[in-house]
Each structure stands twice: as structure tokens, then as C-alpha cells.
Amino acid sequence: MDISNKIEHRFKDSDSNLYASHEKVHTREVKGVFQNLRKIMMIFLLGLYYGLAWLNWDGHQAVLFDLPERQFHIFFLTFWPQDFFFLAWLLIMAALSLFFFTALAGRLWCGYACPQTVWTEIFVWMERLVEGDRNAQKKLAAMPWNREKITKCITKQTMWIVFGLWTGFTLVGYFTPIRELGSATLESFSGTYALGPWETFWIVFYGFATYGNSGFLREQVCLYMCPYARFQSAMFDKDTLIISYDGERGEPRAKGKKRKQTDVQVGDCVDCTMCVQVCPTGIDIREGLQYECIGCAACIDVCDQVMDKVGMPKGLIKYTTEHASEHGETHILRPRIIVYGVLLSLLFVAFVYAIFNRSPLAVDIIRDRSTLYRVVDAEHIENVYNFKVMNKSKESLFYQFALPEETSATILASQDRAIRPGEVGNVPVSVILPAADLSGAINTIEFVITTEIDGESFQVNEHSRFFAPR
Ligand code: SF4
Ligand code: SF4
Fold first, then answer.
1. Segments of 257-379 assigned E as strands
2. Which of 99, 110, 138, 266 could form a disulfide with 294 if both were Cys (CB 3.0 to 4.6 A apart)?
3. 316 within 8 A of 269, measured Cβ to Cβ
4. In what side-by-side order are the strands of the sheet with 442-453?
5. Domain chopping of the chain, boundaries
6. CA of 316 to the centre of ligand 1 (A)
7. What is the pTM (predicted TM-score) of this model?
């Protein structure tokens, strides 16, 4: 059975248990190479999320999605609603990256960078700080409600709620300048409620979502809510990196006295169940590849420690591929990796080029609908347009409105003008065309709009209709 079929098969098994009551997974703490890597990633990503909002750049918040001003600052770049296709482009690249990295390295995203995993880690860490390790937590859960249990419960819940609200506050701080938001929050604590209703709603809503997903639901988000867990099997093949138990080496597993019997042949697995105890989704990796596995590598780290202790070589559970487990050859470069890789690289290069070569002007031409045309005299027809010109740069720019040189049309009066940064200028433009040059009642006319930044010229050519009597 190939790798994607095995995962599908596991889905069917697990779907029959959907209505079973949920048992909380208490995990044992584990240290090791991969857990250190995960910690480094966690510190980096959380630092980025909570720290970036406080960073200033060129006199403004480095990352600020200013909805009222309709400006989106990301360091030295400012985007406008007209640039929204960049967001769609970014999402396409994100989806393609997910395909590429999943086909190459399995659930690397889930184990090391997914916000659900990262925030759950910090909530679990707080829980351990208050309630102790796995055994202490299980003991506490089984205990009747007494002073110790109530105190620990209140302490843990308070830490979770405060952390959740701080997360919500930071998120809102990417939409409302975070320093102003901080002052308003402090002012609210001193008696005068200074936060706006939407700010309050989103802080509480996102704080609650973080608390619920990372404190309570945890692995259930991965098992039942995340669509990625469901479709990742389609991206797996026999050369994808997976975490796997070496059954050939480990079986038959045996522990204690049985291992000392000389007439019984035993494998390297000492059946200590440590790999099950550290698993955040509560599975037994020795049962084979399972869709519940989020690729956290906790079982690799703990099993390596066990192997070290019993004097056997590490790697009973390890990162491998299905081909390698079957003593075959792993192919890193394969058609789907090449196709995803090439597509992603092309999109990325084009994206960077498009971002740095954005035009500082966006133009919409709206025709005066009340009067289609005006007969100036027996030989000339006039049409009136309203130009909506947006200055997408960070400085005031001077815009010139012209017609191509070869046309016989003329603009009645020059409407060239300066427009402030971020402003949409309404520019009425009146054009006169000799009736003899018209080919019918509806004609096409071209406009040339130009501006200059630091000596570099930018031009937009826009077309519209020119109406004349039938
Ligand atoms: S941690 Fe290693 S030795 Fe212990 S049960 Fe798991 S696979 Fe076997
Ligand atoms: S099986 Fe291992 S790698 Fe997979 S989720 Fe459990 S501990 Fe993490």
C-alpha cells in the first residue's frame, strides 16, 4: 500500500471514532536536537509576531495596515487598495510553497512553523510551569477539587488569558498604531475607557481564539479542523521525508526480563512507551505512518535518548523516506519537485520585480454621462472626461495629461497638476476632435498621463470612448 493510501486508510479508521469522548493528552517533556530546533523556531516566530509591531521605520510603524487611510505599510513599501492583486499573488506563492515543501519534506510546516503548533507549545510550557510534568498533571487531574487544584487552575487560566489577550492586542496593533493602542489601553485601566468598540471586540475575539485553540483544542485543531492534514496525503510520495519507526530493527519489541532470556530473539525496541508519552497527538508511531503525526520529532529525540541509555545505536525512530525504509534509493529531484520549484522561483522573481517596479500612479477615466458630446461648431466635437488619478508614492507628484503626438485631437485647457501622496485627484479633461477625423458615432481615444520621481519618468496610457453625432 503506498504512502497516500496508508494515510487515507488511517482517515477511515479515525472517522469511526469521531464521536468518542475526548481524552486530554498529557505529554512528557522532551529535550533533544529537534526540540532545540523547534524552540529556536518558536522564539524566532513569536519574537517576530510580538516584536515587529513595535518597530518603527522612516517615521511610521514598520508594519501597519492602516485601514482608515487605506495605506498598508511594510517597511519601505506602501501598498494601496489598488495593489491588492499582490496579496492574491502572495497567497498563490504561499500555496505553491506548501505543495513544494510538503512533497519534499513532509509536514515540516506543521512541526516547526504552523501558528497552531507554535502557540500550543507556549501554552503547554505555561501549563508545565504551573502543574509540573506529565505525571504531576495526571495526578492533579485525578485529584478532587481542593485548595491546591483550585490555586493551580486559577494561576494557569490567568496566564493563558493574559497571554491570549496580549496576542489579540498585538494583532490589533498591526491595524491601529500600537503605541496609540497601548496608551488607550493603559488609559482604560485608569478609569476612562479609551479603546474603540471594534478594537475592544477584536482584542477579545482574537485573544479568545488563541486561548481556545492553543489552550483547549490543541491537537484537535490538527486532527479535525485543519484542511491541510486532510489533503497532505495527495502531496506525499515514496520519496517524501517522513518520521518513521524502523520495525525491522525494533521488532519483536520486548522489555524487562524477557530481553534477558537467551532463547527469545528480541528487537531493539525496549517497549518503554516513551515515544507515545511525548507525542502531542497521543499516537504510537510504531503502528506506522498516521495522518495524526504532525512531524514534531519528539519521538525521535526521546527514542534516541533511550537508545543511548541502553547502549544501542540511535535512529530507531528517524526522519526517512518510504523508499529508504524499503532499502531503495531516495530521489530528491523528481518531476513534481522540479515543476513546483521552477514555478515558485518564476513567480517569486516576477513578484519581486513587480513590487519594485510599481507605477506611482493609477488612473481611472470616467466619462461625463449627462452629456455624451457637445457640437462646438460645424467642424469640431467636444467630449468631457473626469480622471481619477491616485498618487501611490510617498511624495507630492506633478501629473501631466496629454494625447499621443499623432492624434488631431486637442485638450481644451491644460489640467496638469500636483497631487499629494495617497490622494485621489479628480481632474476634469475636455477634448476637442475635428469631425472630419471621426470614423462614426463611437470612437476610441488614447490619453497619456506622465509623472516623474527623482528624474525617473513614469507613464500610463489609458483608453476611453469619444462620442459624436450619428
Ligand atoms: S521510545 Fe524507542 S524504545 Fe521506547 S517504545 Fe518507543 S520506539 Fe521503543
Ligand atoms: S508521532 Fe512523533 S513526530 Fe509524530 S506527532 Fe507524535 S511525537 Fe510528533
1. 317-320, 361-367, 374-377
2. 110
3. yes
4. 417-419, 397-402, 442-453, 456-467
5. 361-467
6. 8
7. 0.81
- Is the pLDDT at 20 greater than 80, yes or no? no
Q: Which amino acid is at 401?
A: F
Cα distance between residue 428 and residue 53, in whole Å: 41
User: Would you say the CB of residue 283 lies under 6 angstroms from ligand 2?
Assistant: yes
Ligand 2 pocket test, pick from 121, 285, 292 with the greatest ligand atom count within 8 Å of Cβ, gives: 285
Residue type, 341: G
Nearest-10 crossing angle of helices 33-52, 147-172:
60
Q: Which pLDDT score is estimated for 310?
A: 93
Cβ(286)–Cβ(250) below 8 Å: yes
Q: Which residues of 419-454 are buried (b: 16+ CB within 10 A; e: fewer)?
A: beebeebebebebbbeeeebeeeebebebebbbeee
If you take atom 5 of ligand 2, which residue's CA is the nearest one? 293
Please report the pLDDT score of residue 11 as a whole number.
Answer: 47
Q: Map grid coordinates 485638450 to a residue.
A: 411
Among positive and negative, which fits the CA dihedral 20, 111, 215, 274?
positive
How far is 89 from 111, CA to CA, in rounded Å? 26
What DSSP string describes 112-128? HT-HHHHHHHHHHHHHH
168 contacts 206 by C-beta, under 8 angstroms: yes
Element (H, E) at 303: helix 298-309
Q: How far apart are CA 437 and CA 459, in angstroms?
A: 26
Which class does domain 361-467 fall in?
A: mainly beta
Measured distance CA(279)–CA(299) in Å, rounded: 7
Q: Which three cell numbers stand for residue 260?
A: 534477558
